[in-house]
Design brief:
The protein has about 325 residues and is an alpha/beta fold. About 20% of the residues lie in helices and about 25% in strands. The protein folds into two domains: about 30-155, Elongation Factor Tu (Ef-tu), domain 3 (Beta Barrel); about 165-330, Rossmann fold (3-Layer(aba) Sandwich), CATH 3.40.50.80. It contains eight helices and 15 strands. It has a six-stranded antiparallel beta sheet with strand order 4-3-8-1-2-5. It has a five-stranded parallel beta sheet with strand order 11-10-9-12-15, sandwiched between helices. Strand 9 (about 170-175), helix 2 (about 180-190) and strand 10 (about 200-205) form a beta-alpha-beta unit. The two termini are about 35 Å apart. The structure holds flavin-adenine dinucleotide (FAD).
Amino acid sequence: MSSHAPSHNPEFDPILTEVEMNLVRRKAPVKGRIVRSELCMNGKSPSFVRHIEVDISGTSLAGKFKAGQAFGIIPPGTNDRGRAHNARLYSIACGSAGEDGAGAVLSTTCKRVIDEHKPYKKGADPDDHSLFLGVCSNFLCDSPVGTEVLVTGPSGKTLLLPADTSKHDYFFVAAGTGIAPFRGFLKELFDGPHPTTSRVVLVMGTPYRTDLLYHRWLCDLAAKHDNFEYDVAISREPGPDGGERGEYVQQVINRRMGDWKPLLDSNRCLFYVCGLDGMQIGLVRTLAYHGLGRHYLSVPEEFDSVDPNEWPAERIKRRVRPTARAMVEVY
Ligand SMILES: Cc1cc2nc3c(=O)[nH]c(=O)nc-3n(C[C@H](O)[C@H](O)[C@H](O)COP(=O)(O)OP(=O)(O)OC[C@H]3O[C@@H](n4cnc5c(N)ncnc54)[C@H](O)[C@@H]3O)c2cc1C
């Protein structure tokens, strides 16, 4: 079969959980309160990422979020044009029941945006290399428990679990804070009296091992459930072969294709990606290279008879689309 005609078969497509969207907008946000804030890296790391919980009980947003959606936070203050800041989106890191079992305490996984100034904006001074601090991520991470925050949402219908989770198996690929929705999915799938019997794989990518997020919890979950497998891709440390170069998520998938191909090639499997914009490129190439594109990718004719490893990144971004069995959220 040619690669531009995915074997679309509605029988195997997921029927996704129904969601509500944008019930609360920026003009009339609800007030939540931070009730927990703790670092969630794997030890001392050059990046700072916090697991933050926000209590929205008593507001019109309580109970309205589904795993995989995001909430908006409006940071205090004004932007450089003197206007109130826009809301920033944060994926919920909890299941639909929230952290409290009633959907009234949401969590997220917030990474501080810290850098030296770079001339991103037109007209920016190329010699300015003073400290750049992202507004909202640093506001959230700075805020102690008890801080009031303005919340909007729910947002997002890209990454969702199927309504009947038993009908599918799951392949999750995360980079950095892209782990947030998968923590929520894993809670949804494994917490409670009837853990899923579906097969679930999570591949988590970070630059350094110390950047792994929720690592201990994920290892414990994998030790407890034979049907959950957790593997990591560490890009800036020596790879498992002892070579100098580390691995990106697609390289781990490529290396472990022997173990995972039956799962990825089955009609039950759904493929989810969340994290950094650009991570989808290598994954698209890898899936296509291993003949798995027909499940997960809609590929234009121009790629026919071209080795997937040669597919140009820009063309992939513009022309390759996920099928109903692949869900991709990158930011
Ligand atoms: C659907 C979705 C889900 C998300 N989920 C999460 C999540 O779970 N966790 C999380 O941490 N984030 C998440 N984000 C990202 C989040 O919304 C914010 O974009 C992020 O926290 C940065 O916001 P900020 O206000 O801190 O930075 P901002 O103040 O908005 O600064 C970032 C902007 O400044 C510019 N900039 C960046 N670096 C520099 C530099 N060095 N010099 C000059 N200018 C620069 C860029 O234009 C960039 O867009 C998500 C985004 C989306 C769209």
